Task: inverse folding
């Protein structure tokens, strides 16, 4: 058996090792997730220095090792330097990389995931500042779809009744439940909330953590997650439009404004991102740690601290 193998991969994670090495976690088309040691890559004169950076796509030659495989050669195919020059773009990219780490398999081809991530990073790098969050939100939904766990948004997960957002009726509402699998009717939401309250009383559970601020300090972090909430007609319509978006259209803002409502704001996108974040964390059973920076960069839907919440899309 050959002691070396070739792969095409994108660097998702980097950790310093020893005095001058890096341990890279790479998403490859051919072998899924691999961890390799890039020896000497932290030296300024190393040929692997720039090629071992985050989100660099390389053609790789890897030598098998007893404990860790070693990166012996790398030829850069593509890189996204502008992602590291903008904190919002870098945060969004790390968010997507973390989701890919959750769902990528080792020792199995991951062509679709590799291709999708590269497409999304291209969108983010080229995106103007006010479209970073919309692109990120759409990308999250696409990754969940590829994994086969995207939330159901066109009919109630509990009753299978169709959900048609009514923009003309004041205070029209539906619901959203991570545990149920997506959108639900308002009546179903009330039933879930009543069951949760009864269960909490019986179990003498601790008080719920405020929305958007789940407690990840213990292994059972789901107990603190706000798994259900109401949806406005605009929020449900936005979720349904995201489910249809294929990422091919460069005019993201015009697409959503024309198909939903001209008054979509940053606050609306923050709410949908937060919903999908809670949903993904519930189904992957892991916290998305890089997502904490989203609140710092864009604001938080639970606190209303959106400095640009009046921005129209």
Result:
């Amino acid at each position: 058996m050959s002691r070396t193998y070739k792969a095409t991969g994108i660097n998702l994670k980097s950790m310093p090792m020893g005095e001058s090495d890096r341990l890279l976690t790479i998403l490859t088309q051919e072998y899924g997730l691999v961890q390799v040691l890039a020896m000497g890559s932290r030296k300024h004169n190393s040929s692997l220095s720039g090629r071992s950076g985050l989100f660099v796509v390389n053609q790789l030659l890897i030598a098998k090792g007893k404990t860790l495989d070693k990166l012996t050669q790398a030829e850069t195919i593509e890189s996204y330097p502008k992602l590291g020059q903008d904190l919002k773009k870098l945060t969004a990219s790390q968010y997507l990389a973390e989701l890919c780490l959750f769902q990528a398999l080792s020792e199995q081809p991951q062509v679709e995931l590799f291709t999708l991530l590269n497409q999304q990073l291209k969108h983010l790098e080229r995106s103007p500042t006010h479209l970073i969050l919309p692109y990120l939100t759409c990308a999250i939904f696409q990754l969940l779809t590829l994994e086969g766990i995207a939330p159901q948004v066109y009919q109630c997960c509990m009753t299978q009744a169709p959900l048609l957002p009514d923009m003309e009726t004041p205070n029209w509402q539906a619901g959203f439940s991570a545990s149920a699998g997506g959108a639900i009717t308002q009546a179903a939401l009330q039933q879930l909330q009543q069951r949760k309250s009864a269960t909490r009383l019986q179990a003498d559970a601790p008080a719920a953590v405020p929305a958007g601020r789940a407690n990840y300090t213990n292994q059972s972090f789901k107990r603190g997650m706000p798994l259900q909430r109401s949806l406005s007609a605009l929020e449900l319509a936005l979720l349904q439009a995201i489910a249809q978006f294929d990422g091919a259209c460069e005019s993201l803002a015009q697409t959503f404004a024309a198909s939903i409502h001209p008054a979509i704001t940053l606050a609306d996108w923050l709410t949908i991102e937060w919903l999908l974040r809670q949903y993904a964390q519930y189904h992957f059973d892991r916290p998305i740690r890089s997502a904490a920076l989203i609140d710092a960069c864009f604001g938080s839907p639970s606190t209303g601290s959106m400095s640009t919440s009046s921005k129209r899309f």
About this structure: The two ends are 56 Å apart (CA to CA). Strands lie at 4-17, 21-28, 32-38, 57-63, 69-78, 173-177, 182-184, 228-232. Residues 160 and 184 are 8 Å apart (CA to CA).
